[in-house]
Amino acid sequence: MISTLTQSATRLLPEASPGTDLQHPARWWHALADGRLQCDLCPRDCKLHQGQRGACFVRQRTGDAMVLTTWGRSSGFCIDPIEKKPLNHFHPGSSVLSFGTAGCNLACKFCQNWDISKSRDMDRLMDQASPQQIAAAALRHGCQSVAFTYNDPVIFAEYALDVADACHERGLQTVAVTAGYIHAAPRREFFAKMDAANVDLKAFSDDFYFKLTGSRLQPVLDTLVHVRHESDCWLEITTLLIPGQNDSSAEIERLSRWVATELGPEVPLHFSAFHPDHKMPEVPATPLSTLVRARQIAREQGLHHVYTGNVHHAEGDATNCAGCGSRLIERDWYAIGRYALTPHGQCPDCGQALAGRFGTQAGSFGRRRIPVALA
Predict the structure, then answer these.
(1) Backbone φ and ψ of 352, nearest 5°
(2) Mean pLDDT for the chain?
């Protein structure tokens, strides 16, 4: 059922100006008896008249079909450390070519990338690049993977899947950084072509999701279960802790217990610090003590790998063996220090395998962030 917020967002978005967007056939939609077209990509189920865009802003009805207006266009490309996604158990120390587009299918009042995800200005999409150009650029710059990030890649799924095919043809891997708000059918296709994903579990309260993101919790939980148990995609989770909103010990305990029970204790969980932004500038930044408390609670609930993010915290950045507790990986922000895993990804002290995807050695990309132009 479409929410009142979604109906309003769909109704108020302007029609596109002719010739301003690159339009690509969209998938996952159907015609309704009343003449509207319904987008079946995400649980918003936007129902569109001619020329209208969905709440995500980038999926539009043109004539009797749906189109994606951002295929082949990006808000910019940057080479990042893989730990910045954050992914701590997916080829540590490697570099990843990252990009996003415009728009988002959530309405998070606390969005940390709102200038991109909330953009209604298609001119922000300055870089045009085909999937083949993106894969070639990643290889040229020595990246091991390509990440769909900055805004949510599920809304440009057709583009992301085409890029994933081009990457896999060249031996590159793909990463999705997403809120996981997507219907079952596109979910299966999308994550089947992702090698790793970091999914935002924004809170463990449907009330939080509805009031602060304009969405619902259950579809995100469904996505997490699917990725973990029905795909080969490596999964890590991030929860941005916002003071007074989702940082109570009781909620952190419920969230952590659900992850341990439904997904398994080996799934890494990242607790990240909020900074005042977008529509919540009056909320203070998350103190380190909150992240440390959350990490302790999650570990008490049985999770083996719990990290702190957006802060400098050596203990919260480190990876320890789930068997004997030995320190396996040390990090200084995004730079790898000690790396004690065997070539087969095992603890040298007890032989237990570390959950994740590892090569014979760690990468050495470090903390750099390198903007690149593909055009």
Answers:
(1) -70, 140
(2) 91
Helix, strand, coil % in the chain, rounded to nearest 5: 30, 25, 50
- For the entire predicted model, the pTM comes to 0.92
Separation CA 52–CA 117 (nearest Å): 19
pLDDT tens by residue, 315-337: 999 999 999 999 999 999 899 99
* DSSP 8-state secondary structure symbol assigned to residue 370: E
74 Ramachandran zone, left/alpha/beta (phi>0; psi -120 to 50): beta
pLDDT at residue 117 in the model: 46
Give the whole-number percent of the chain exceeding pLDDT 90: 83
Cα–Cα separations (whole angstroms), residue 57 to 60, 104, 156, 259, 263: 7, 7, 11, 32, 32
The owner of tokens 């009042």 is 109
What are the sequence ranges of the domains in the chain?
4-68, 73-372
Provide CB contacts within 8 A for 228, sequence distance 6+.
235, 262, 263, 264, 267
Q: How many CB atoms neighbour CB 184 within 10 A? A: 12
Residue 3 pLDDT more than 60? no
Least confident of 107-121, 166-180, 298-312: 107-121
DSSP state of 165: H
Distance CA 267, CA 328 (A): 16
Structure-token match 């802790």, residue found: 241
Chain centre distance of CA 218: 17
pLDDT at position 19: 36
- Whose structure tokens read 């319904």? 38
Instruction: Judge whether residue 195 has pLDDT over 80.
Output: yes
In angstroms, the Cα distances linking 18 to 21, 65, 122, 182 are 8, 16, 13, 29
What is the rounded distance in angstroms from the CA atom of residue 229 to the CA atom of residue 135? 28
The domain defined by 73-372 folds into: TIM Barrel (3.20.20)
Residue 125 confidence (pLDDT): 55
100: buried, middle or exposed (CB in 10 Å: 19+, 13-18, 0-12)? buried
